[in-house]
Design brief:
Structural class: mainly alpha
Radius of gyration: 20 Å
Distance between the termini: 32 Å
Helix content: over 70%
Number of helices: 8
Shape: elongated
Oligomer: single chain
């Protein structure tokens, strides 16, 4: 099962690369066309914006899985195992609540977004902002899995160290700054 989950996240990372590359290429081509030919591709501005939305929300899920979001690691690092477990449990409960609200808000807003069309492509805005379903559900699932493992005592010392920011190599720290 873990291999399938890891493959899924590799696919997400590849999708992020494709979206970011597509966004960069579209913007670059549009800039060159505007300066060289005094024209541009109107569709590229719109699609680049939508790609950016998707990169942001897919990246949030991938980053959450890798403990890449901002945390109060200096405070958590002061606690022992029991304090870290409590902090991690409270953190995951808050994340579940906020992500569930985000999912619910996307659900309530979806009919309005679906009925609206993008000005240039004519694409339903439900395709653009529907990514909230993925992000909300993805973060709830990850946080629930962590919370269940915490409550059943199956969390490892490595995970607690990652939560406290202690087990980071210099390369990993350089990536985060």
């Amino acid at each position: 099962m873990q291999k399938a989950i890891d493959r899924f996240y590799k696919v997400l990372e590849f999708l992020l690369i494709i979206l970011l590359s597509g966004m960069a290429v579209m913007v670059f081509v549009n800039v060159v066309m505007r300066y060289a030919m005094n024209s541009g591709l109107t569709v590229s501005d719109e699609l680049a914006r939508y790609f950016f939305v998707w990169v942001t929300f897919i990246g949030a899920v991938v980053s959450f899985r890798e403990h890449g979001h901002m945390g109060v690691e200096t405070l958590v690092a002061l606690f022992g195992r029991k304090g870290r477990v409590i902090c991690m449990a409270v953190s995951n409960v808050v994340i579940i609540g906020v992500s569930a609200i985000f999912f619910w808000g996307t659900w309530k807003q979806f009919p309005i977004n679906w009925s609206m069309s993008a000005p240039v492509t004519g694409l339903s805005m439900g395709f653009v902002y529907g990514i909230g379903f993925f992000t909300g559900a993805g973060c709830v699932i990850i946080a629930l899995e962590r919370l269940i493992r915490l409550l059943t005592g199956r969390v490892t010392e490595e995970e607690l160290a990652a939560f406290a920011g202690e087990n980071m190599s210099l390369e990993h720290l350089a990536e985060r700054s």
